[in-house]
Amino acid sequence: MSFDDQLPPKTRLLRAAAELLANSDGSPVSTRQITKLAGVTAPTLYHHFGDKEGLFDAVVAAGFEEYVAGERDFAPSGEPLEDVRRMWDNHVRFGLTQPHLYLVMFGNIRPESRPAIVADAESLLEEMLSKAAIAGQINVPPREAARSILAANVGVTLMLIAEPLEDRNLELSTMTRDSMIFAVSTETARGAAADDSGKSSVVVAAIALNAALQASHSDQLSSSELKLFLEWLHRISSSS
Amino acid sequence: MSFDDQLPPKTRLLRAAAELLANSDGSPVSTRQITKLAGVTAPTLYHHFGDKEGLFDAVVAAGFEEYVAGERDFAPSGEPLEDVRRMWDNHVRFGLTQPHLYLVMFGNIRPESRPAIVADAESLLEEMLSKAAIAGQINVPPREAARSILAANVGVTLMLIAEPLEDRNLELSTMTRDSMIFAVSTETARGAAADDSGKSSVVVAAIALNAALQASHSDQLSSSELKLFLEWLHRISSSS
DNA sequence: CACTTCATATAGCGTTGCTATAGGTGCTAG
DNA sequence: CTAGCACCTATAGCAACGCTATATGAAGTG
Q1: Residue A99 CB-density burial (10 A; 0-12 exposed, 13-18 middle, 19+ buried)
Q2: CA distances (Å), origin A12, targets A34, A36, A54, A181, B34
């Protein structure tokens, strides 16, 4: 169960820490576990990495390489905002496939101590958004857009990690992603509010839905379902 | 430096924990510090709260009361989306004035263990968004909108907490906030390319009706009818 | 008074991150 | 060849951690 004795202790420590971090079910990883798996004793760890956090930082640095590699892997599609979407998705995917590493990278927030990793991720995003800005596709300075989008991206990823596996719904991610990109992009036709009739109630909403349904040939309901649905709608909207 | 001996130990423990948590500069707070400040011994803590996390949960619960009180304090302005903005701002303000408490509440994420606090904050937001939905102001089901907005809200707050005080820029918050609200609100005609406007109005109306029905306990339909009705509504509103 | 129940204290277990000290190893200089 | 010098690693152990088995006191009830 130990590591190849040929490798230098520093490397063995890094691999052991990475492995334990990846397989730990959220419980903290002790230096004793790490040094035991690496086949070295405690002082070796502190000689090479200063302290536990130093070792984790080194692991994170390697993890970040992987993260950045993922972010850069896809060739620019010529559609910067589409690339931003892919960066978002890659960010979330990274967080969900390596939740413990991600939590060390982005989750271990301490007041007034901004992890360098955040700045790196931010500039990576900003780079792509600058292209979008050049193409006149966004209505916010790239730096601010990057900060904003990254914040939302981190928030969503943390939420998804915290969620039990069985009801993890990636729609939260895509929806938030598209909301953010939509909001900063210039391609949105503003104004032209469809119905600002206001003062909506059950009745008004029912009437609106009724009209809209009949006009749009929605195929979400079968015809028999639709018939009954409309009858109920009528009952609701003709009451009160 | 100790606490009023008249108070029951449970209260003293709570206050001591809250105080140490509030004044700690991010470093962890030990049970020994807490019990010493409270003037009790270890078993007392475990008798009342089970374990350290239990005590922290209790502190958080008190903090959450404060948080909720802040969220409810302002009278509804009659403009639900404006109230959502204020809830967002209140959330950020709470996080920045009590960063350590906030980090215990929202930052201490562990894989697959979703803090109850998140669900509470979510339903608080959802409640307000339902009003917006009834008024036909949003184009996404309230629950999904709440999840999405809260995720972004948490992400932004964590980012701001991590940022050094001197260059904390609240514009990140307002910008992200408005981006999210803008994206889910119907006051903007969404990108024409991806949208069939007829179908879109069906969705909006369905969402509004759904929210209205759940809010008003209409007795126009029997409970079994209502159940099926809502199921269809859900099918319609979650399509597109 | 006897008895139960709740609340607190004494003392200590096992584990944590970390280190003072010392010893071994491989290199270069004389 | 050997002496000296960095560099690296191990032995052993400290202080602090979360937590608990056990015992003692206080308060209420028959």
Answers
A1: buried
A2: 9, 10, 15, 42, 39
Kindly state the helix (H) or strand (E) to which residue A86 belongs, with its residue range: helix A80-97
CB contact under 8 A, B190 and A188: yes
Cβ distance of A162 and B110 shorter than 8 Å: yes
What does the pLDDT profile of chain A (240 residues) look like in tens digits?
Answer: 555 566 788 899 999 999 988 887 667 889 999 999 999 998 999 999 999 989 998 988 888 888 877 777 766 777 889 999 999 999 999 888 888 788 877 766 666 666 677 888 898 899 888 888 887 788 888 889 999 999 999 999 999 988 888 889 999 999 999 999 999 887 654 433 333 333 234 544 554 454 455 455 555 566 666 666 666 665 654 444
pTM of the predicted model as reported, rounded to 2 decimal places: 0.76
Q: How far is B188 from B182, CA to CA, in rounded Å? A: 7
The type of residue at B107 is G
The tokens 């895509």 sit on which residue?
A174
User: Any atom of strand C under 7 A from CB of A20?
Assistant: no
